[in-house]
Amino acid sequence: MAQPIQLELDLDAAREQRDLGMARAAEAKNNNMLLAISREVAEEIAAEKGTVTCEDVRAALTLMPQHHRRDSQNWMGSMFKDRRFEWTGEYVTCRIPCNHANKHKVWRLAR
Question: Which of 10, 45, 64, 91 shows the smallest number of beta carbons within 10 Å?
């Protein structure tokens, strides 16, 4: 009988890999422009309605010309790593089916 495989779990290592991946994605030349546009859109949404999520920004980006948007990319995870935004302490459940009802942080403009 085969021995079960033991998974080694390390939350700190997982977070480090996540942050590294987000940083690499945000630094990519093409993604810098998209990240800047996304932050501007997020800032406008937050100013208008008080809070903003990545899902709000994604919805707004679908209204942009095709060459300025992407449906789902790692660089979007870096969108709120900017001094203009602060986390409200709240989460919302994502309504995009392929995101499997993951939780997203709710952000506001920094005071």
Answer: 10
Rounded Cα distance between 52 and 27, Å, is: 23
Distance CA 66, CA 1 (A): 54
Q: What are phi and psi of 96, to 5 degrees?
A: -80, 120
Question: What are the tens digits of pLDDT across the range 5-45?
Answer: 766 777 888 788 777 777 776 666 567 778 888 899 999 99
**Is the residue at 11 inside a domain?**
no
List, for residues 44-95, the tens digit of each pLDDT value: 999 999 999 988 998 888 765 544 444 455 677 788 989 999 999 999 998 8
Residue 2's alpha-carbon distances to 5, 6, 8, in angstroms, are 9, 12, 18
User: 53 lies in which domain range?
Assistant: 17-109
Asked if 53 and 104 count as a contact pair (C-beta separation under 8 A), the reply is yes
**Any idea what the CATH number is for the domain that residue 96 is in?**
1.10.10
